[in-house]
Design goal:
By secondary structure, the protein is mainly α. The protein has a two-stranded antiparallel sheet with strand order 1-2. Strand 1 and strand 2 form a beta hairpin. Helix 4 runs antiparallel to helix 9 and helix 6 packs antiparallel against helix 7. The longest helix is centred in the middle third of the chain and has 26 residues. The protein is globular, with a radius of gyration of 18 Å. It starts with a helix and ends in a 6-residue tail after the last helix. Bound molecules: geranylgeranyl diphosphate.
Length: about 280
């Protein structure tokens, strides 16, 4: 199986589980709005990262792992819905479709985001209730998603005017990096390989920075203020290559079979996510 086939297989197995996340007893319009964003495409990068860490240690993902991976995707989806709202980025289009609030209105979109964030911790909490191995992963997900993580990064972006390169890097570390870090570290915890956490932190640090830079580079022509625009296109590309190399090298120290993750890193960061 080549890399793209393997990615598709993991993504499909995950999506089959994800489809069951929002149960039929949720009020109809709220359920529709939640599923509009949760099941409306996306690369599923964070769940795939979580599942691939397990696979790197020869563990076939268990039902609890698909459940935990769904929790991570629920957090990601809520952040996108809220980020698109008029009070935040005011975006009309996401993944080539109208944003959630354009279809369901701002109140329902806000509630769909709230409900997805809550559902995330219902799913993650169920994993921990069934197996204490996941308890620390719930803590890591909460910590990285919240005020000291992703939400904190978003808050800094809104309150800092025009940030310089250092501040932009700090914002990225939190806003984009912390949920990627949580995906990788929760996978390490679920694999019961905490002795390898330092190497996975190294990997996720470089991956997270590079992922945001990659996104910045795709939008650089729009004239948005970003780390890529501050560094300039050529320097940003050079830095992206360096970070990608650092991420791939960090994988060597994780003590697992990381061939797939190495391919994933290069596909996401250097091939502009082609085929994913
Ligand atoms: C808490 C409201 C709130 C926001 C948190 C994550 C975030 C901050 C905002 C989302 C907007 C954004 C462009 C963030 C940068 C990270 C990023 C590139 C997100 C998009 O992730 P992908 O490419 O999305 O994995 P798909 O569509 O593939 O799921």
């Amino acid at each position: 199986m080549n890399f793209y086939e393997e990615y598709k297989k993991l993504k499909c197995a995950f999506e089959t589980y994800l489809e069951r996340s929002v149960t039929a007893d949720v009020p109809a319009r709220l359920r529709e709005s939640m599923n509009y964003s949760l099941l409306g495409g996306g690369k599923r990068l964070r769940p795939v990262l979580y599942l691939s860490v397990l696979c790197s240690y020869g563990i076939t993902p268990r039902e609890s792992d698909y459940r935990f991976a769904s929790a991570i995707e629920c957090v990601h989806t809520y952040s996108l819905i809220h980020d698109d709202l008029p009070v935040m980025d005011n975006d009309d289009v996401r993944r080539g479709r109208p944003t959630n609030h354009k279809v369901y209105g701002e109140a329902t979109a806000l509630l769909a985001g709230d409900a997805l964030l809550t559902l995330a911790f219902e799913l993650a909490g169920k994993c921990a209730a069934l197996d204490p191995l996941y308890a620390e992963a719930v803590y890591v997900l909460a910590r990285n998603a919240g005020a000291c993580g992703m939400v904190g990064g978003q808050a800094m972006e809104f309150s800092c005017g025009t940030p310089d390169a250092k501040l932009l890097s700090n914002i990225t570390l939190l806003k984009t990096g912390k949920l990627i870090e949580a995906s990788v570290i929760c996978g390490t915890i679920a694999a019961d390989r905490k002795e390898n956490i330092a190497a996975w932190l190294d990997f996720s640090d470089s991956f997270g920075k590079a992922f945001q830079l990659c996104d910045d580079l795709q939008d650089i022509e729009k004239g948005e203020h970003s780390l890529a625009s501050v560094l300039g296109k050529d320097n940003a590309k050079k830095y992206l290559n360096e970070l990608t190399e650092r991420a791939v090298n960090a994988l060597d120290k994780t003590d697992g079979n990381t061939e797939f993750l190495g391919e994933l890193t290069k596909a996401v960061l250097l091939r502009a996510k082609d085929g994913i």
